[in-house]
Amino acid sequence: MLDLAIIGGGPAGLSAGLYATRGGLKDVTLFEMGMPGGQITGSSEIENYPGVAQVVSGLDFMQPWQEQCFRFGLKHAMVEVTRVQKSGDVFEIIQADGTSVGAKSVIVATGGKPKRSGIKGEDVYWGRGVSTCATCDGFFYKNKEVVVLGGGDTALEEAVYLARICSKVYLVHRRNEFRAAPSTIKHVKENEKIEIITPATIEEIGGDQSGVSFVTLNVEGTQRRLEVPGVFVFVGYAVNNKVLQQADGTMLCECDAMGSVVVDLSMKTNVAGLYAVGDLRIQAGKQVVCAAGDGATAALSVLAYLEGH
Q1: Catalytic: 133?
Q2: For the CA atoms of the chain, what is the radius of gyration?
Q3: Of 3, 137, 279, 294, which is the active-site residue?
Q4: In 24, 26, 40, 85, which residue has its Cα 20 to 30 A from 106's Cα atom?
Q5: Assign residue 117 a region: left if phi > 0, alpha if psi is -120 to 50, beta otherwise?
Q6: How far apart are the C-alpha atoms of 59 and 71, rounded to whole Å?
Q7: 104-144, pLDDT tens digit by residue?
Q8: Of these residues, 136, 166, 255, 290, which one is catalytic?
Q9: Which domains does the chain show, CATH number per domain?
């Protein structure tokens, strides 16, 4: 019987493992199919993590995390978890081969990923001019022009954020109406550095070996070409909550309309002993430093929970 099962090996899961084992738990296993590290290992440059002054790749950045987290006794199970369920006070970690492991508590850190638009050239220039994180990559386009694709709250909020850094932001949406809060729409429309292009679609993202250099738009049947080095795509976000889905199709714990897990400030769900962290939870910051904080918070909550049980 595990004291704690951690599902997912990104920054949130690893931080949870570190704080849990260093806090005294002996039987803690992190379930992750591949090597721990998470999505951030695919990033070419990280320069905004506090205390890390040099610019490093995501892979290099996460390498010492693994060494540090496993030093205190965290175990790594390189298996796929298909479902987490609860029977009485005990959780069952159901694995792909049909076997299961019991656990007194569970931290789910399976994350999520931004949806891709499917536009021609998007995959080619992904990470080389095409981004889904203005906070992460906006600084690379300081005093340059960029395109933002999307019409929801995230797209408009990120357009406003980028307008503080970039010389101009082209906000492209397929409809004239935006699916965002009225106050956010007002901010966008009042920002002189944001040009709204609607209704319009992006036909192609193009460039060369150095990255993106242009975007071709279809604006009500007329083509328009924008010479820009960066495109930010905000067309939705898919959380990886599949392990919480039960055999009857219900969810183990409360989730919002988008599938994100509802938690409190201690990362507790509405199921005793179950916690959700990182991009999986509601109102996630979707930054490494935020995910790490979530993991630490959840682990401290687990320590208090197990002490009381």
Answers
A1: yes
A2: 21
A3: 137
A4: 40
A5: alpha
A6: 19
A7: 999 999 998 888 999 999 999 998 999 998 888 999 999 99
A8: 136
A9: 2-114+237-308 (3.50.50.60), 122-233 (3.50.50.60)
